[in-house]
Amino acid sequence: MSQTKIPSKVASPKASFKANEFIVYPAHGVGQIVAIEEQEVAGFKLELYVISFAKDKMTLKVPTPKVASVGMRKLAEADVVRKALDTLMGRARIKRTMWSRRAQEYEAKINSGDLVAIAEVVRDLYRSDVQPEQSYSERQLYEAALDRMAREIAAVQKIGDPESLKLIEGQLSKGPRRLAKGEEAAVVEETDVDEAA
């Protein structure tokens, strides 16, 4: 009996995604599988997912055996979306390291495809009206994370991107009052203690 189970495990990754299904590809965000096709490459038949990223006007072909290694996944479940939205209401955690290092960490979180990690980037880089303006690179990372998060929430909840953005901004505004520039250092020191604990 154990011999029959092994082939079924091999066959199951091919059937894990269906045509017209929305998925998350970590490096590009939410896309839709528009077709599952076979191509012959160097004499071998290869099954591919054809994924459309409409907003980026891009199409990607992913071999079905590579799905796990690239981190492609189904859309987040409702409880993961709820956890990500709750993350936005938390206190920003800003490490006392050079910006270039933090920027790399934020970029890695955005490209991880993990909705909660992306929410952490949105929370940490969000600036309210009373806070100083973001630098250009901070703004770029913030907008990239916000866009990824908004698109996935929109796809999960079957709402438009504008409604999804309003939902995210509403959650951010419920967070601890964002402090003015003079009070920022206290937040940094306080989070260092939190992370050490």
In short:
This protein has 197 residues and is an alpha+beta fold. The protein has helices at 2-11, 67-70, 78-87, 99-112, 115-125, 136-157, 161-173, 184-196; strands at 22-25, 29-41, 44-53, 58-63, 73-74.
Textual characterization of the structure:
With 197 residues, this protein is an alpha+beta fold. The protein has two domains: 2-74, Thrombin, subunit H; 78-196, CarD-like, C-terminal domain (Methane Monooxygenase Hydroxylase, Chain G, domain 1), CATH 1.20.58.1290. It has eight helices and five strands; from the N terminus they run αββββαβαααααα. The chain has helices at 2-11, 67-70, 78-87, 99-112, 115-125, 136-157, 161-173, 184-196, and strands spanning 22-25, 29-41, 44-53, 58-63, 73-74. The protein has a five-stranded antiparallel sheet with strand order 4-3-2-1-5. A hairpin with a 4-residue loop joins strand 3 (44-53) and strand 4 (58-63). Helix 3 (78-87) runs parallel beside helix 5 (115-125). The protein is elongated. Mean pLDDT is 81; it is low at 1-15 and 179-197.
Mean pLDDT: 81
Described by strand count, sense and barrel closure, the largest sheet is: 5 strands, antiparallel
How many beta-strand segments? 5
Annotation field: number of helices: 8
Number of domains: 2
Query: How far do the termini sit from each other?
Result: 50 Å
Q: Spans with pLDDT under 50 lasting ≥5 residues?
A: 1-15, 179-197
* Name of the CATH first level of the largest domain: Mainly Alpha
The general outline is elongated
- Percentage of β-strand residues: 15-25%
The percentage helix is 40-55%
The CATH superfamily label of the largest domain reads CarD-like, C-terminal domain
- What Rg is obtained from the alpha carbons, in whole angstroms? 20 Å
Overall CATH architecture of the largest domain: Up-down Bundle
CATH topology of the largest domain: Methane Monooxygenase Hydroxylase, Chain G, domain 1
